[in-house]
C-alpha cells in the first residue's frame, strides 16, 4: 500500500541555516534516501517544496467563485515542506521508516498517511 510521508516545519528556520548547516542536513537527507531506496520502500521519489511565500492559494470567494490569493491563507508556523511516497505493507512499517527521517531545524514533524485508491 502507498503512504504519503509529509514533512512539516517552519521554512523560515530552514532559511536561517548557514550554508554549512544546510549542507550537513542535506547530507543526512541523502543518506536517508540511500538507506531506503534500495529496499523498494520509496516510490515515486519525493518533492521538496519551495517556501510558503511562493505559494498561491485557491479558495471559494463569497460568491462561490474561485479566488486566487498569494501565499498561504492561514498564518501557520508549520507548513508542509516536502512529500515522500512510500510503499509499505502497513501503517506501522511506514511509521517506522518515517521515524528515521533526520528531523532538524526547519523540519519539526513527519506525518504518514495512507494514500487512497479508487481502483475497482
Automatic annotation (TrEMBL):
The record's section on Gene3D superfamilies has: Dimeric alpha+beta barrel
Matches recorded under Pfam families: YCII (PF03795)
Which stretches are annotated as coiled coil?
Answer: none
Q: SUPFAM superfamilies from the xrefs?
A: Dimeric alpha+beta barrel
Q: Where is the YCII-related domain?
A: 1-116
Q: Which family does it belong to?
A: Belongs to the YciI family.
Name by which UniProt lists this protein: YciI family protein
Q: Which organism is it from?
A: Nonomuraea corallina
Amino acid at each position: 500500500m502507498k503512504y504519503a510521508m509529509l514533512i512539516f516545519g517552519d521554512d523560515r528556520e530552514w532559511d536561517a541555516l548557514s550554508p554549512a548547516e544546510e549542507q550537513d542536513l542535506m547530507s543526512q537527507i541523502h543518506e536517508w534516501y540511500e538507506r531506503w531506496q534500495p529496499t523498494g520502500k520509496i516510490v515515486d521519489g519525493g518533492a521538496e517544496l519551495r517556501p510558503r511565500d511562493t505559494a498561491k492559494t485557491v479558495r471559494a470567494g463569497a460568491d462561490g467563485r474561485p479566488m486566487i490569493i498569494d501565499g498561504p491563507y492561514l498564518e501557520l508556523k508549520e507548513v508542509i515542506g516536502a512529500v515522500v511516497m512510500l510503499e509499505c505493507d502497513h501503517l506501522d512499517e511506514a511509521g517506522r521508516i518515517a521515524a528515521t527521517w533526520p528531523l532538524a531545524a526547519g523540519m519539526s514533524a513527519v506525518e504518514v498517511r495512507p494514500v487512497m485508491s479508487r481502483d475497482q
